[in-house]
Structures are given as structure tokens and as C-alpha cells.
Amino acid sequence: MGQDLRNWNPEDEAFWEKEGKKIANRNLWISIPSLLCGFAVWLYWGIITVQMLNLGFPFEKSELFTLAAIAGLTGATLRIPSTFFIRIAGGRNTIFFTTALLMIPAVGAGLALSDPSTPLWHFQILAFLSGIGGGNFASSMSNISFFFPKRTQGYSLGMNAGLGNFGVTTMQILVPLVMTIGIFGGEAMILQNTSGTLIGKIPAGTETYIQNAGFIWLVFLIPLAVAGWFGMNNIRDEHVSPNISNPLGAFATITFMLLIGMVTAACGLWFMLPESVGGSGLNVSKWIVLPLVIAATVILLKLIPGQIGRNLTRQYKIFGNKHTWAMTIIYTMTFGSFIGYSAAFALAIKVIFGFQHVVVDGVLTHDTANPNGPSALMYAWMGPFIGALIRPLGGMISDKIGGAKVTQIISVVMVASALGVAYFMKQAYASATPEQYFVPFLLLFLVLFTATGIGNGSTFRTIAVVFDKEQAGPVLGWTSAVAAYGAFIIPKVLGEQIKLATPELALYGFAVFYTLCIAINWWFYLRKNAYVQNP
Fold first, then answer.
1. Taking the C-alpha atoms of 257, 258, 260 and 262 in order, what is their torsion angle to the nearest 10 degrees?
2. Residue 200, beta-bridge partner list
3. 155 vs 529, which has greater pLDDT?
4. What does the alpha-carbon distance between residue 115 and residue 238 come to, in Å, rounded to a whole number?
5. pTM of the model
6. pLDDT digit string (tens) for 356-365?
7. By the 8 A CB rule, do 140 and 10 touch?
8. Of 535, 78, 481, which Cα lies nearest the Cα of 319?
9. N or C terminus: which one in the chain shows less Cβ crowding within 10 Å?
10. Are 409 and 522 spatial neighbours (Cβ–Cβ below 8 Å)?
11. φ/ψ (deg, to 5) at 118
12. 414 within 8 A of 333, measured Cβ to Cβ
């Protein structure tokens, strides 16, 4: 425990059964809760902003949507440098340090939420720092891929990602509950609108401790950082982390590479966001800015001199492999949808079903509170829960029948369910009684979440089979980085379309993208002369 490993060969069955499996599983079971907390801190703004509305914080709905979007874009961008941490800094060093860094936004959020007069820019900075948790997925998946043999990659990566993604569900259940009790002290705030938890609604006038949404994560992060330091391992073999420096040097390298990602993410946000929320006001299209942010991050990392630059040159060979690009698109369909819908689901329920959509003076309005509307905090956890829970199952099924075949089936399901969600969104957002459309909306969204989870497991299997042992880890990190922009794009697009009173157009657009993925998956992996047949 805690020692560097050499001559690590999980493909050797005798070595695996004698000692490899035990070491790999120990690293996996420390990695999973660490990644879970990363997801929780990254995406808790989707729940916090709902409660900020209920408590009457002085911000517009559109301003609160930007917090989830900022965290989403930063987390996705930080996955790009995180993709390459394992070779440069080592798995143990990386997981310990990036888990410990999550304490900064967690404490900051608790302090900021204690005061309703905290300015918007303060929350934006904390949402920006929460992106560290999003970046952790790339390094975590890359690290675990080196510990397990190819024959169990669908399962091991599905467990790490699936149970790690339970951070979304854990957060969506835990945060509303801990806000009801003053466990960390501080003054209570009074609900102005009805809120809720997993177990029921909470009436207006109830005392709430919203600051607990940040402080609660210290209870887990502190022991997890200790466990990561003393229980995990660096693999010092040539194809993993052959030339890492001492821990302090590794931490400095990680910090410097994260700062590069933060700079490019901040520039991208500045170009896109309106002046009213601290942006440039240029409102440059996200479809232009996001590719530029990705390219700038990749290029700036490559310009780092010395051993880091040489290491990155070797890992950048993945960009010359056509399968890297095919799997990036396909993985974006599955994980990008999961993480984007997870970020937007609660606020979408609140905005679409929590208000009556009535005509006033000939104009359809959307700001009359709906007393019969469902509580977003009672239902928002369900989709991410199902999507995360079923991910290991998707990996295990794919280990048996092939990843591409499973991906193709769930892609068709995603197209159909997205179109169904769009239909009921449209009906609800034009109704004085939107709650009558909530049940079919919820059920179809749960089908959509289920498909993303199964498909996420199937893509892990495909990547593990298509790429060699040196490239599989960086490819997992890279594809997850690009896919994570779903946490920015989906809340942003949905927020824009809700503002235009056409939320269904967002889902129509996503369905078109899923159809494109069906064609790519078939061409690369399922047609008669596919490059790799049903990996």
C-alpha cells in the first residue's frame, strides 16, 4: 500500500490471481468514492441554484443557469490536461492531490451561501473552481485502465465510472437533506417558495441551511485524501508512469497544467457570456468558442518545455488514430448526454413544471408559480441514479456480446426517447396546468438516462479493445474531456431555448446528433467490412 509498482502485468493470469487482482481492486475502491465526490462538487450547482431560487437570492433564472454552465465548461476543459496526468505525475499522486483540491470550492461554497448578499461573481468563481471535480474523471479513468486486464475492462471501467457518477445522485439526494438541519452551525434562512427532498415537499416558511451544500463534502474529502495517499499506487512501468518526480514535483506539475486549462476556459467563458454576468458581451457562438478552447488547451500543453513536453508528444499520438475521433463522437453521445442532462434536469423541472404558463394581455407568460407543480428536488436524482447504476451492467453485457452492438441499440432508444421528451416539454411549456404532462415527461427522461448509462459502459468496452494498452488510458481521458462539454452545452442550449419558449428544439437537436452517432458506429464497427468488427 502506497508503494510504487514495477513489472505490472495484469494480462498474466498467474500474476493476476496471485497478487494483481487484490492490488487493482484496492486502487479501484479508493478511486470510486474519490471520483464520486469529484462529480458531486462539480455538479452541485444544479441543485444549489434551485434552492437559491426558493430562498429568494437576488438573481435572475438566466443568471443561475450560468453557474452550472460555468462549472460544466471548466470541468470539461480541465479534463484535457487531466488526461495526461497519470504518465507525468503517477496515479497515486494524481488521485490524492486532485481529491484534496476539491476542498477549496466546497469550503468556498459553504461560506458564500451563508450570506444571501454574496455577489454573483463570487458564485461564478466558485462554480469555476468546482470544475476541478469534473476534470478528475479523465485522470481517474486513465489510471484504472492500467490496473485491470483487457478481458475485464468493461466491468472495471464501468464500475469506476458508474459508481463514480453516483456522485451526481448522491449529491442530489444528500444536499437537499442536509440543508434541513443546522449540522455545521450558522444562521438559517427562510424558504420563500416550496422546496423538497427525496421524501417529500418542504413548505414555504421552513428554516433552511443552504450553506451545508458545500460544507458536507469535507466529511468525505478529508478521509478520502488520506486513503488515496496511503492506499493507492503509482505504476512505474514504461507504458504507464516511468519518469515521475517526487510527490511535490508531481503536485506542482499538476497545478501548472490545471492552470493552463483554467486560463483557456476563462477566456472561452468571457467571449460567450453576456456583459450582465461578467462576460464580454460579444456573445460569440459556443460552436465557435468551444473548439477554439479545446485546440488552445491542447497546443499550450504541448508547448510546455522539457520532460513534460516530451511525455505529451508521445501521448499525443492518439490524435493520429482515426478511432480516437470516432469514439470521441460516440462517447459524447453517451456520457455527454448523461452529464449534461444531470446538470440541467432539476432546474428544467423547476422552470417548466414549477410555473403556470398563462396568457396575460395576449402574451404567454412563464412566471406564475404553480401550486400543483412537482418538487424538482424530489425527482431530479432519479435519472442520474439510474444512468449511473446501470453503467457497470452495460459494460458487462458488452464484454459478452460486443460494445458496438450494444451502443447501436441504445442509440436508437436515445433518438426515440429524446423526441418523446421534446413533445411533452412543448405541451407543458404552453399549459396553465403543466403538471398533467409531468409523468410521461419523467418516464421518457428516465429511459433516456438509462440508455446513456448502458451506452457509456459499452463505449468503455470498445475503447479497451480497439486501442493498445498505452493508448487506451489517454483515449479514455481525451474522449471523456470532449464529452464532458455536454455539462456546459446541454444546460446552455436548454436555457436558451426555454428563454425563447421553445425548449423542445433543444431535444430535437440532440436527437439529430444521436442519429449521426448511429451512422458513425455502424461505419466503423458494425458494417460488413468494418475497421474492427463489433469490438
1. 180
2. 197
3. 529
4. 51
5. 0.85
6. 999 888 888 8
7. no
8. 481
9. N
10. no
11. -55, 130
12. yes
